[in-house]
Amino acid sequence: HKTGMAKAEIQQVKLRFGIIGNTESLLRAIDIACQVAPTDLSVLITGESGVGKESFPQIIHQYSRRKHGEYIAVNCGAIPEGTIDSELFGHEKGAFTGAIGERKGYFGEADGGTIFLDEVGELPLSTQARLLRVLESGEFIKVGSSKVQKTDVRIVAATNINLSQAISEGRFREDLFYRLNTVPIQIPPLRERGEDVWLLFRKFASDFAEKYRMPAIQLTEDAKQALLTYRWQGNVRQLKNVTEQISIIETNREITKDILLNYL
């Protein structure tokens, strides 16, 4: 695969957004994000939990013509089903019990900007229908209103579940999937990133050494091999947590395989 961007440009993006690693699949994901940024195409970022998907919508926003507009990140899995429509699309005063004032909603607020919908697979079907309408026509209606409003928002979505499976189980709309998935970006799991795991460990170890004002932990050769072969179900997030725990708890700064395995 010939990358579209020069290696030096990708390096710049990595530095700016704190992305560490040299795996081809990771560089390709960064490359695609930068290539689609100037367009208004919808992007769907897929990857396991903890792989670092949240950097990519920021790259897309910052390298787009919307970079001076709002950037709003919404975790769709963290908002109760009863209030999600009101958070996304706003509501009129008195639209429901507790709706004391009116609310603009993220789609109103992000007009001219970018919305990142994380865990998009968690959206209720009724909200998915509203989202499809915004994607197709740029139109939405506040909860409790009958007035159609226009918005110009670029949507980047992410999911750590298999949406094709969710579609076959009737939990996700197929038409919405195709609209969101105009440009797919896949973020590789840590176990497929080879020696990137050492680079990340070194970075985290030095960050925590600075934070806790002590020398950085080092790995013995057998511990380094153990990092490479471990499965990392929690990916980069898990590696970061493990590195922090070891940094705080272990008095010896040289970490052997046996010590490391206590934390995995």
TrEMBL record:
Gene Ontology process terms (BP): regulation of DNA-templated transcription
Pfam families registered for this protein in UniProt: AAA_lid_14, Sigma54_activat
PROSITE patterns the UniProt entry points to: SIGMA54_INTERACT_1, SIGMA54_INTERACT_2, SIGMA54_INTERACT_4
Keyword Transmembrane: no
UniProt keyword Cytoplasm, yes or no: no
Sigma-54 factor interaction domain mapped to chain residues: 19-248
Keywords tagged on the record: ATP-binding, Nucleotide-binding
GO MF: ATP binding
InterPro entries cross-referenced by the UniProt entry: AAA+_ATPase, AAA_lid_NorR, P-loop_NTPase, Sigma_54_int, Sigma_54_int_dom_ATP-bd_1, Sigma_54_int_dom_ATP-bd_2
The protein, known as: Nitric oxide reductase transcription regulator NorR2
Species in which this protein is naturally found: termite gut metagenome
